[in-house]
């Protein structure tokens, strides 16, 4: 009877050990599955971030190309304007005051692409001088960048030209303002 009792205790002990080992192996398997799922999710996030980074780089490259195109167009326009002004100065001026000017006096609107969308400005001209520039709409622009970029307005007015430097830290927004001013001034030209 003692032997039988001993065998039963050993058998119970073996069953308990088998249950503990089985439970531990199931826990390890569950932990491994969770780790595998987490790694898979992290890989998906990394892939998504890489795609977003590529899209942002492509957008930045396109914006840089647009900025370079706008700068070269502004330089070409400035040269054309200077040539036209020289030609207008050399002509006999017996007509009215407004026809002597290269630009018609008044307020003109222009728009161009900024970093976050279209930027619209209102430019006031008087006697071939830019007297005022107001940003009338820039709904897609980040307000911090736009407020920095608006400092380019004083540069344009003091230089009486759109051939000014962009604002560091708000390059695309300031380029949008410059190009919108160019667009508005283009509408004011005397024919």
Order of strands across the main sheet: 1-2-3
CA-based shape: rod-shaped
Q: Please bin the fraction of helical residues.
A: 55-70%
Q: Which structural category fits the helices and strands?
A: alpha+beta
Strand content: 5-15%
Major sheet size, sense and barrel closure? 3 strands, antiparallel
Order of helices and strands: HHEEEHHH
Mean pLDDT: 86
Number of strands: 3
Poorly predicted runs of 5 or more residues: 92-97
Rg, rounded, reads 36 Å
Kindly report how far apart the N and C termini lie. Answer: 123 Å
Helices, by number, come to: 5
What does this structure look like?
With about 190 residues, this protein is α+β, with helices and mostly antiparallel strands. Helices cover about 65% and strands about 15% of the residues. It is built from 5 helices and 3 strands, in the order ααβββααα. It has helices at about 1-90, 95-100, 145-150, 150-160, 170-185; strands at about 105-115, 120-125, 130-135. The protein has a 3-stranded antiparallel sheet. A hairpin with a 4-residue loop joins strand 1 (about 105-115) and strand 2. Helix 1 runs parallel beside helix 5. It starts with a helix and ends with a helix. Mean pLDDT is about 85; it is low at about 90-95.
Topology:
Layout: H1 2-90, H2 97-100, E1 106-113, E2 118-126, E3 129-137, H3 143-149, H4 151-159, H5 171-187
Antiparallel strand pairs: 1-2, 2-3
